[in-house]
Specification:
By secondary structure, the chain is of the alpha/beta class. Among the domains are: about 130 residues, Rossmann fold; about 150 residues, Rossmann fold, CATH 3.40.50. About 45% of the residues lie in helices and about 15% in strands. Strands 9-8-7-6-10-11-12 form a seven-stranded mixed β-sheet, sandwiched between helices. A five-stranded mixed β-sheet has the order 1-2-4-3-5. The two termini are about 40 Å apart. The structure holds nicotinamide-adenine-dinucleotide (NAD). The site of nicotinamide-adenine-dinucleotide (NAD) has 24 residues, from helix 7 and strand 7.
Length: about 425
């Protein structure tokens, strides 16, 4: 994201929070606190590259609010990430953890780097140095990172190990999204996609759409997009298109997802997988379908393409994929939008379960994790829908109302130190 787009993204989240605070008569002391991030940490650190050179990287860790518990949020490795983008994502995490009512605040971290252009050993050295730089913020009771775009369970393992070495003993609960061998939770890898799948099915039910008859388009073929697509196909939906950063594969009769995923593994993209037509990402978003899942990056749906979206339901697997201008256009078209802070909360829900399991050294099986996740996502969706109907609001505003009210209640009850 460019610096300007990052600033815009943070302003958009601030405006969303501000508007909801005003609409709900939230105390002024809470409103002004929610407008800012509580802690912002920027680090510039050297990493020894494979060719012997030292390169300086810039990283961030931002805590938006920790009124409801330790702060929680992913770490992104991306060449275009910037501080304002991280602030926006941290604020969304505060809202997300509050909507699904888990005892966390919101945070986000990032390193400006291109992980695709780095070797495994360079990534390990970068991760370990970044982890030691932000270790003064981290801790199972303080701030708990997780994977995001460009990071994965292995990166979490390096962070956990680096933090543990500093302490002199193993601290599995300091990160979530870890590999199973070191205290990861069953179901965590699939959790965000599973939560999106639950959101799609609940939204379809609300609109009277039979999943067996529904056509689905998914933008993004990473952790969130690929798993959402796969789980929806297993529920009988017809997946007609899926894309990655290079473009998409389209088959109106229904994709063979296994073929598409294999093709991506072999060639780096879903484009050209067997019996599919190539579509650009711009074309994909405008395909005729019942359900569109946006699960790539921010700002997929903007003022220019929103009028051309033909889906009846949009589920935001990605964070902030819809700009406020686009949101208004899509709502005016009557499209039912399940917002990011609800739709993609499955990941942080199972992160919470992983953290609880780590603290108790008592591990659950996959069915227990999935049952908890499905129940919590369904309860949160129903609650948001109920407020949306009661207040005649859209789902984003309703989710934000619930979140802001919970955040304000915690801040008011705790008061201001000293
Ligand atoms: P990922 O890196 O695994 O996958 C991202 C996918 O998006 C890749 O397939 C990539 O090729 C594709 N992509 C990138 N740019 C694109 C573009 N311009 N057009 C189309 N596709 C493009 O990342 P992820 O973990 O799946 O995260 C995706 C989104 O979901 C992000 O916004 C992330 O913040 C959000 N999210 C992720 C999680 C999680 O648990 N992984 C949880 C909540 C939210």
């Amino acid at each position: 994201m460019t610096t300007d787009a990052g600033e815009q993204a943070f302003n958009n989240v601030r405006k969303l929070i501000n508007d909801i605070c005003e609409r709900m008569n939230i105390p002024e002391t809470c409103r002004i606190r929610l407008m800012e991030c509580e802690r912002e940490f920027t680090v510039h650190f050297p990493v020894r590259m494979d060719d012997g050179r030292a390169q300086v990287f810039t990283g961030f860790r931002v805590v938006h609010n920790d009124g409801r518990g330790p702060s929680k949020g992913g770490i992104r490795y991306h060449p275009d990430v910037n501080l304002d983008e991280v602030r926006a994502l941290a604020a969304l995490m505060s809202l997300k953890t509050a909507v699904v009512n888990i005892p966390y605040g919101g945070a986000k971290g990032a390193v400006i780097c291109n992980p695709k252009a780095m070797s495994e050993s360079e990534l390990e050295r970068l991760t370990r140095r970044y982890a030691s730089e932000i270790a003064i913020l981290m801790g199972p009771e303080r701030d708990i990172p997780a994977p995001d775009v460009g990071t994965n369970p292995q990166v979490m393992a390096w962070i956990m190990d680096t933090y543990s070495m500093g302490k002199g003993y193993s601290v599995p609960a300091v990160v979530t999204g870890k590999p199973l061998e070191i205290g990861g939770s069953t179901g965590r890898f699939e959790a965000t996609g599973r939560g999106c799948m639950v959101s799609v099915l609940l939204a379809a039910k609300r609109l009277g759409i039979d999943p067996q008859e529904a056509t689905v388009v998914v933008q993004g073929c990473g952790n969130v997009g690929a798993i959402t697509a796969d789980l929806l196909a297993k529920k009988g939906c017809r997946l007609i298109a899926i894309s990655d950063s290079r473009g998409g594969a389209y088959d109106p009769e229904g994709l063979n997802l296994a073929d598409a995923f294999n093709h991506k593994k072999q060639t780096g993209s879903v484009i050209g997988s067997r019996n599919t037509e190539k579509v650009t990402n711009a074309e994909l978003l405008e395909l005729k379908c019942d359900i569109l899942v946006v699960a790539a990056l921010e700002r997929a749906l903007v003022k220019a393409n929103a009028p051309c979206v033909k889906a009846r339901i949009i589920v935001e697997g990605a964070n902030a994929p819809t700009t406020p201008e686009a949101d208004k256009i899509l709502l005016d078209k009557g499209i039912f939008i399940v917002p990011d802070i609800l739709a993609n909360a499955g990941g942080v829900v199972v992160s919470y379960l992983e953290w609880v399991q780590g603290l108790q050294s008592f591990y659950w099986n996959e069915a227990q994790v999935n049952n908890y996740l499905d129940g919590l996502m369904t309860a949160a969706f129903d609650q948001v829908l109920c407020i949306a109907e009661e207040k005649k609001a859209d789902m984003r505003a309703a989710a934000c109302m619930i979140a802001v009210q919970r955040l304000a209640a915690a801040m008011t009850t705790r008061g201001i130190f000293p």
